[in-house]
Amino acid sequence: MYTVIRDILLTRKENQLSYNEFIELALYHPQFGYYMNDSSKIGKSGDFYTSVNVSDILGTMLGKWFCTLFRSTGLRPVICELGGGTGKLAQDLLGSMKKWDPILYEETRYMIVETSPYHRILQKEALKGHTVTLVQDVEELAPFEGILFSNEFFDAFPVHVIEKRDGKLFEVMVCHDEGGKSFKEKPEALTNLRIRAYLAEEGIELSEGQRLEVPLAMMDYLQKIGHILEKGMLLTLDYGYTRSEWCLPQHHSGSLRGFRRHEMKENILQFPGGMDITTHIHFDSLQNALARQGFIHRAFLRQDELLLKLGILEELAAHTDSNPFSAVSKRNRGIRDLLMQGGISSYFRGSVETKGLEESIPVLPSF
Ligand SMILES: C[S@@+](CC[C@H](N)C(=O)[O-])C[C@H]1O[C@@H](n2cnc3c(N)ncnc32)[C@H](O)[C@@H]1O
After folding, report:
1. Is the shortest distance between the CB of 239 and ligand 1 below 6 Å?
2. How far apart are CA 286 and CA 253, in angstroms?
3. Which structural domain, as residue segments, surrounds residue 292?
């Protein structure tokens, strides 16, 4: 991957790439990109965990919620998951629907949009007992009616990086470090008009010294979703910040980072193709983009608050088993981990938007 990127750099004017292009190559180069190769990524043997690896509980709660929603709205029972990873979330969700409402489960069409050939193989294996359609491109779904959802999807999208120095805006580019087999940053005066338009449209003003990721790829994808989803609900679960949170001093340097064998790496230019690269997402931009496309914003909650609304506490099992490794102890612990202050859920949010659905019908069961 190093040689591929270096050779591309040599063909470029100024021998530089935007961060967006670098991340796109490092994660999604058809042959050597991180998500395209067959190394283990999610879970103990991989580089990072997601909420899905904590227990079956997220999928269980989503399964129950979606059953209630289909029944209360009369929405066509079609579910599409964006970026299904190992297939574990789909497995838990479909298992929950089957238990909760077997008739609806039989009628439901479940699809996964997945770029990674490696993850598609894992998904096929994990979902052998269910009927699931795998597609590679979200545009294959058009026109879509149903529930479209994702967990930790947009955080895996490439981003541009900008910063403000001496009152001027720069785009941070990536170039080859002649001294060694590596890459380094090169700030250039910001000339990208799409980035300027994004900043203007979102009303973003950087403070002196601030660095920010610009999610143009996410914005493009949301536009596609706007065209495709004709009627239904879009649920986005991810870690991210609101506009005011991005302005806090602790987020002054942005959020781009890598994960390799469960270690966080601040320099994402190392190990291209051998490391996950991720950012916190811009929730205001996501919600604004969807509002511009006719979606109604229905809820924005921390994941723990969302799970409480969905009735997670009813899943806690009373037991007298003193074995901390028994299945019931482990599951209860998984629920506690998702609810604990400072635990995995407190960094995660769920944004819920709908289109073409009666606004008077609540989308969350306990609303
Ligand atoms: C961080 S992983 C999360 C996986 C899973 N949702 C979970 O929670 O465990 C991101 C997933 O999205 C997939 N992905 C990233 N960009 C994609 C795109 N544009 N279209 C489809 N899948 C994509 C990756 O291949 C990977 O499976």
Report:
1. no
2. 21
3. 2-355
Domain-embedded: residue 366: no
* CATH code: domain of residue 299: 3.40.50.12710
CA of 326 to the centre of ligand 1 (A): 31
In a domain, 294, yes or no: yes
pLDDT in tens, 115-139: 999 999 999 999 999 999 999 999 9
Q: What is the 168 CA–ligand 1 centroid distance (Å)?
A: 35
- Alpha carbon distance 104, 66 (integer Å): 10
User: Model confidence over 159-200: pLDDT tens digits?
Assistant: 999 999 999 999 999 999 877 678 999 999 999 999 999 999
Query: Residue 355 corresponds to which tokens in the numbers above?
Result: 């289109």
Q: Ligand 1 atom closest to Cα of 42?
A: 9
Nearest-CA residue for atom 24 of ligand 1:
83
Ligand 1 pocket: which of 28, 116, 137 to mutate (most atoms <8 Å of CB)?
Answer: 116
CA distance 340 to 317: 17
Provide the sign of the torsion angle of the four alpha carbons 96, 101, 102, 107, taken in this order.
Answer: negative
- Let me know if residue 31 belongs to a domain: yes
